[in-house]
Amino acid sequence: MEAIFFAGIALLCMVSFIFKLLTLRGSLAAFLTGALTFYSFQWQGLVILAIFFLTSSLLTKWKREVKEDFNAEPLEDKKGRTAGQVFANGGTSMLAATGAILIPDPVWLIMFAGAFATATADTWASEIGVLSKTKPFHLKEWRKVEAGLSGAVTRLGTIAAVIGAAAIGASYYFLYDTSTFMASGIIIFAGFFGNIADTLFGAWFEQKFYCQICKTETESKWHCKTKTTRIFGLPWATNNLVNFSSTIIGALIAGGLYIWTVK
Ligand SMILES: [Zn+2]
User: Phi/psi of residue 91, each to 5°?
Assistant: First the structure.
């Protein structure tokens, strides 16, 4: 029975590669994430992973023509999500799954869900927030900036973050027999505040670039089909690292609150 699940995960990763949702190495990373998730958190864990992955993929492709200007990494995007992007969003859940193998404890599941609630809140906030009619407000610069920059928030994006985190918290509640209303609330809370951590990391640490063609700031190395110049941040402070760090924060908030309230 378990073999069927592992074969299914492999099949889905291959299909994702064929349909260019993932690069080759991205699909291998996704297989590793999926296999560990299933091993530690059963098929329900895979459903949570799938909710994140499917909604992110769909939202990224949704209104692509409007977003093209903001995330202009044409070469990379056409090939799908990379291994780095998979680890950025799924790395923390892999750590939680590994922790669950080493020291069995219910807290790992809450941390796993907290990490995915953060990743989902973040993706929904970015992909939906970028469509906001009003300009985003940058938390560090304390002024309105062009859409598409990390560290800036919109009302639409914030609402999307809450709904994204709630989608994972509610899924956890309905999927697991062991779930409690309290734990589900903790996951939603952790996802939302993990997303806020993401915005703060993005505002203070993430590198930023300047596009010579359209004279705007961007977080992308490519804009208007041209290489941009770095104007802020350290080379290693990439969007992937910021996303990974925020899922760690989300997992720690979820795990910490769970231990504090339940034990
Ligand atoms: Zn440009």
Answer: -60, -45
3-state SS string for 133-189: CCCCEECCCCEECCCCCCCEECHHHHHHHHHHHHHHHHHHHHHCCCCCHHHHHHHHH
Number of CB atoms found within 10 A of residue 218's CB: 24
Quote the ligand 1 centre to 50 CA distance (angstroms).
Answer: 33
What's the CA-to-centroid distance between 215 and ligand 1, angstroms?
A: 6
What distance in Å separates the CA atoms of residue 213 and residue 81, rounded to the nearest whole number? 26
- Centre of ligand 1 to C-alpha 67, Å, is 12
* pTM as predicted: 0.89
3-class DSSP state for residue 56?
A: helix
Per the CB < 8 A criterion, the answer to whether 92 and 108 are in contact is no
Ligand 1 center–CA 162 separation, angstroms = 31
pLDDT tens digits along 13-37 = 999 899 888 899 999 999 999 999 9
Distance 92 CA to ligand 1 centre (A): 33
